[in-house]
Structures are given as C-alpha cells and as structure tokens.
Amino acid sequence: MTNQILKALESYRGIGLFYDTVGPTAVGTGVARVAIDAEYSVPSAARELVGVIPTIMGEAPAPAESILAIGDIIGADFKGIPAEFMFPVAAGKLGAVDQLETTPMEFWPMHVPLKGTEDLNIGQEMLDANAGNAQAALTMVFSEKPSGKGQIYGKFSREIAGSTTAAYVAEGTDIKISNGIKMYEMIAVAVCGGITTADQELASIATMKCSVWRPIQTQEFFLAPIHPIEATSGVSVVKQIMRLPLDAKFNQKNAVVETTIEQYDALTVAPMYCHGVRWYGSR
Amino acid sequence: MGLIYRTVGPTATGVAVARTAIKSDFKVPAEARELIGVMVGIQIEQPNAGDSILAVWDIAGKDYRYQPCEGLAPVGNGKLGALDEMSTTPMEIWKIHAPLNGGEVLDIGIEPLSAMGVNGQAFMTLIFSTIRTGKPTIYGKASREIATGTAAALTDGTDIKIDDGLRMHEIWGVATIGTATVVVAEELLAEFIMRCTGWKGTQEQKFFAEPMHALDGTTGGNPIMAIMRLPFDAPLKGATPREGVQATIKTQAYNHDVLSAAGIYAHGIRWIGAPG
How far is it, in rounded angstroms, from Cα A268 to Cα B206? Predict the structure, then answer.
C-alpha cells in the first residue's frame, strides 16, 4: 500500500533519496528470465541502491490467469548479488477476460553501495507460464549518501506445485545462502494458476528450516489470503503473500534453507507456491 | 502530547472543477497548539457508471499562516457497467505540524480536478495536539489535472511553484480515468516525472504509481486508479535555515498504455517552509 511504502521509506530521510524508473517492458509468456533493462545505467549521483518498488501487470490476460514472478538485479560491477525480490502477485477473475488484480506494491530494501558508474541488468522471471503477455516495471530508490544500514541479499525458491487434494504437503527446492550474517526476512506466496470453481478456499502454511540458524532452526507461518476465491464474476482467484521479519543469526556463513508447503484445502486447480529468504551478508 | 480529533463535513463538493468549502469557519479547539495533520475522505453521491473523483483538499483562512497547504483526497471510482457506489483508495494521514492557537478560524476546502457527473461529498478529520511537537511545518501544493489522452504518450503538466521553501518533504502522483466506460483487459501503468533545477542533488525524480484497482469489464471491480507517495527531502538551493527560496517544479505524466478512455493525472509536492 502506498502509505506503507511512504512509512517504510521515512527512516531514510537525510541521505538524499531519489527515484528513477525502469521499464515497463513486455516480459513474454514463458518461464524464463527476461531483462526489463539489460543495460540500466546507475545515475551518477547514486551512492547506494536503497531498494526497489516493483510492479507488474497483465496485457490481454486470459480468464483467471495469474502471474507469480521474481525479479533480480545482476551486473559485472554490482555488489549486491544475489538481489532477488518478488513482484506483486497478480491474478485475474474467474469467468471473464479481464485485467489482473495484484497484491499491493511493496518496498524491498537492499542497501547496496554504488559508485554511480555501474551498468545493471534488471530482470523478471515468471515462475509459471502466462497465456497473455505481462509488463514489468520498477521504481528504483537511490540515495546520494550511504544509509549506513546493512546490505540485504535475497533469493527465492522456484515454483512448488500444490495439489488438487486437501492436506497436501510438498517439499520445495532448497535456497542456498553464501556469506550470511543474519536473516532479515522470509517470504512465501501462493496463487492459483487456472480456473477454479466457486466457493473454494485455500489455507496454506509455509515452513522453512535451516540447521545453522540460531537460536531457532524452524519457522512456520500462514500465508495471508489477499483475495478469496469467487464465482464467475467479482473478485480474483486466490492469491496469498506473507513477509515476516526474522533476525536469526547464522553460526556459519554458508547455509541451506529447506522449504515446505502444507496445503489444507482441496481445489479444482492446483495452486503454486514459492518461498524466499533475505539476509544480511558480508561481501 | 494530548491529541485532539475533530471533524468537518461531510459537505457536498459540487460537480464542477472549483473549490468548495467543506467548512469555511472551522474554529480551532481552545486547547490546541498544533495541527498535527489531517485525514481526508471523499465519496460520491449517486455516481454515474464509471464516474471518478480526483480531488485536492486545502486549508486556508486568514488565521492560517502556513499556506499553501494542499494534499490529495482519496481517489474514487465507480463501477463501469452499473450505477453503483464508488470505491476509493484508502484514507491517508497528511502530516502538517502547523503551530496555531485555540480559537483561530480555518477555511477547509475541496477541489475536484475533473468534472463529475454527480455530486460528491468530502469530509476531514483534523488531528491537533495540546503541546507543540517542535517539528517543522509542512506545506503542500498540487498540480491541477493533466489530461493524458488515450494514447501511450508523455504529456507535460502544469508547473508547481514554491515560495519560501527550505527543503522538500514528499512527492506524490495520482492517476485515474475520467467519467467514461473503458473496455475490458486494459491496464494503466502510470509514471510520474518531476524536475526542478532548484533542488540540490538529483534534479529529476521518476516513479510509478501503485494501481489500487485494476481495470474491469462491465461488472465487478472498478476502473483504474493509481497512487504513490514517496518521501523526498532535497534541500532547495540558496535556502538558509531561516530564509526560504522560490522554486519551480516541472511535471510530466507518462501514460504507458493505450486506453479507450483518457487518463487524468495530477502531481503534488510537500515541502518544509521557512519559519514564521
């Protein structure tokens, strides 16, 4: 929400915040990384990439279509890799060709030092194929002075397929962390990728385990249903997202986070899930 | 700090692009020593299908020494295919921190930036405190409507002028679609650009607005409205701690998508002014 972004950025006053945009760029329909801008030149005054505010939309979406996409920033001179973040989760209505609704835009802090000479490659990767094209864009948040805050890295698992049956448990792909110091947050999202019937609901639990987190090695949380499922008109198909702060310390710098989802409800179309972790790291 | 809440309105806004007083003679509570901020609401009365509201609030009056004090009311849109109530973007707090005294009289107004089919009603919750916070007073000004047309194009808006500014506090942008029915499966990615040679540091700011409601067909949700508020605290060149300067902010709206009904954009700025 706009007010939440305003609030999140309030703590950066006094360091010369400024804003620039990337895209919008058509990112296609396939499950592949597409550059929103492969040669984005960092503004010369920038001394830190404070973070990003991504957005995504469907163009001519099919009924009940959804978009679950991660973004990333790479580049030979970029000191923030891995810098993955999540685009808003988008889903269209069930019974009509219509525009997709998305979860709110969110601010993803990064605190990556810059020299103002870097070229960045800013990308988007859909985790599930999309029938109609999508367009992705970002507002880049820079500062003219360093914030003094710890650098945050981010990495996401790719799609975990849910099921049409209730009480379904699935393991996702592991997320590997290098040079970790302390966790910053954990994220999980879910969306239905097809036409479901009316009056279905979805409760989901995400679990993350990491043997080198201290003091607690296992975290469990529910995902918040942003839109309930509905009939052939009205609101969108299920989409869920949750971001939670986590400040567990790493007792060694390399770590593996194991991911699991528990799907409580039967659905006529299997949902898809994705986990993410963001952490403070050393270069 | 002894917060005090008071309300004004609801008051009919009229349908024209003109300022209407929500309350022209609001008396500040006797115990109040600072206007901390306001929360503004707006809704439409018996909206036409696809009607929209894009409106700016302001606080004026001969006793109010911290003008201009403008901000954005929530953006409202009705459904496309049916006579229905509007949905609006959330009510938001607009901090002001204006020192004042009990008994002072404020003139609180609302100004639609685009004509509406039928009347709207506006209301405001004012937040006072019984002691002064010592925080600097925030001034505000909005551009008026930028009609962006139906093409994907960059459009120049009106300039926003600052008198007696010390440093910036916030930039915001808002977009919607005017009273019209649009076709399904259209989207609006609204980009806002502001430039000012009087800003120290980076003199161009670009950002996207958040689409609060996606475009819809003949039933269901609302037409597009998009909004973004961002903190921005660039000092103004030549300002001293006690003496402000003038500055002009140039505005552009980038409508990235072809629409069957024209987009309406507005920009706004908020700044810290010279004391006294």
Answer: 43
- Does A43 contact B202 at a Cβ distance shorter than 8 Å? yes
Q: Is A217 left (phi over 0), alpha (psi -120 to 50) or beta?
A: alpha
Size of the A and B interface in Cβ pairs below 8 Å: 129
What ipTM does this complex have?
0.88
Nearest-Cα residue of chain B relative to residue A90: B214
**Min CA distance, B78 vs chain A (Å)?**
14
Would you call A9 and B189 a contact, using CB atoms and an 8 Å cutoff?
A: no
Global pTM reads 0.91
Please, which residues 116-175 of chain A have a Cβ atom closer than 8 Å to chain B? 135, 137-139, 142, 144
Digits of tens for pLDDT over chain B (276 positions)?
899 999 999 999 888 899 999 999 999 999 999 999 999 988 877 666 667 788 999 999 999 999 999 999 988 766 555 545 566 778 889 999 999 999 999 999 999 888 777 788 899 999 999 999 999 999 999 998 888 888 889 999 999 999 999 999 999 999 887 655 556 666 778 999 999 999 999 999 999 998 765 444 444 444 567 889 999 999 999 999 889 999 999 999 999 888 777 888 999 999 999 876
Give, in degrees to the nearest 5, the angle at Cα A46 between A40 and A49. Answer: 75
Please tell me if residue A18 touches chain B, with a CB cutoff of 8 Å: yes
Q: How far is CA A124 from CA A33, A34, A62, A70, A104, in A?
A: 5, 5, 20, 6, 18
Task: Sketch the domain layout of chain B as residue ranges.
Answer: 3-273
Which residues of chain B are within 8 Å of residue A13 when distances are taken between CB atoms?
231, 233
Distance CA A153, CA B139 (A): 37
